Amino acid sequence: MKPNFRFAPSPNGFLHLGHAYSALFSYHWARKMNADFLLRIEDIDILRSRPQYIEAIKQDLTWLNIKWLEPIMLQSTRFSEYKKATKKLNDLGVLYPCFCTRSEIANNAEQKDPDGAPLYAKTCKNLNKDDIAKKIAQNIPYVLRLDMDKAIAKVGDLEINIAMPNPSSKPKTVIANPKKWGDVVIVRKDIPTSYHLSVIIDDDAQNITHLIRGKDLEQATHVHRVLQSLLGLNSPIYTHHTLIKDDTNMKLAKSKHSTPLRDLRESGISAQEIISQFDF
């Protein structure tokens, strides 16, 4: 199979240097390995996604001399696929509804997940059918969570193939440890999917063989490996690159209003100046 790489930003803000590094890292190795390079727009969060951000993404990548195969996949066109996957997981008996609010989850949590968020205490895991039906009838919003214990019992020990420091390195295998995430959300209250679900479905649909992303998503790979196995999807070779940080040693982020690439471009900085500061 010909290697496939991708870059998959969310159009809820303008790209910054962290995005540039991730896109350039993947594009560099796609060319080096004679692979196809794909662009996917992860716009499942319809309320926050904006068409102008999609256009800005394409402008920024073009400025960086990155070329991708058309057509561009938009996740907002693929909700029917996520629905099919949800049904399959539900039929496997590994999903359950959770009616807890964020404050209830925080108040009941005794541990943190790998991202530092309150670890869900499985409060709704043992609700009986009557209680569930009553809450749904009352229109109480709910998410669908993965029963991690049941999921692991079905798939057993799973290997993750990791190539470091770059995708041309000989992959090493590590055993997935998804238990540290607990019963993660698979379908959100406001959106009929989640990042965990949509990303694995679309990586499989686009035949992604080598997946390069930041170390901040390294731990999420353990959850993704379980979902891939449950749904019978392919698992790519993963490379997790270092993060670009600001002067306070914090990673760049849209939520922190990190300087957008478009502002750097307008200030007179050239694309080559951006590219030359990175090591792939």
Summarize the structure.
It is built from 10 helices and 10 strands. The protein has 280 residues and is α/β, with parallel strands linked by helices. The model has no long low-confidence stretch (mean pLDDT 96).
Write the layout of secondary structure elements.
Blueprint: E1 4-7, H1 17-32, E2 36-41, H2 51-63, E3 69-74, H3 79-91, E4 95-98, H4 102-108, H5 129-137, E5 143-146, H6 148-155, E6 159-162, E7 172-175, E8 185-187, H7 195-205, E9 210-214, H8 220-231, E10 237-241, H9 261-266, H10 271-276
Helix pairs in contact: 6-8, 7-8
CATH superfamily of the largest domain: Glutamyl-tRNA Synthetase, Domain 3
Mean pLDDT: 96
CATH class of the largest domain: Alpha Beta
In total, the number of domains comes to 2
What is the annotated CATH architecture of the largest domain? Alpha-Beta Complex
Strand content: 15-25%
Shape: globular
Helical proportion, percent range: 25-40%
- Overall SS class: alpha/beta
* Annotation field: number of helices: 10
Largest sheet, strands/sense/barrel: 3 strands, parallel
Q: Compute the number of strand runs.
A: 10
SSE topology string: EHEHEHEHHEHEEEHEHEHH
Q: What ranges have pLDDT less than 50 throughout 5 or more consecutive residues? A: none
**What is the spatial order of strands in the main beta sheet?**
1-2-3
Describe the fold and architecture:
The protein has 280 residues and is an alpha/beta fold. It has two domains: 1-77 and 245-280, Rossmann fold (3-Layer(aba) Sandwich), CATH 3.40.50; 79-206, Glutamyl-tRNA Synthetase, domain 3 (Alpha-Beta Complex), CATH 3.90.800.10. The protein contains ten helices and ten strands. The chain has helices spanning 17-32, 51-63, 79-91, 102-108, 129-137, 148-155, 195-205, 220-231, 261-266, 271-276; strands at 4-7, 36-41, 69-74, 95-98, 143-146, 159-162, 172-175, 185-187, 210-214, 237-241. A three-stranded parallel beta sheet has the order 1-2-3, covered by helices on one side. A three-stranded antiparallel beta sheet has the order 4-5-8. A two-stranded antiparallel sheet has the order 6-7.
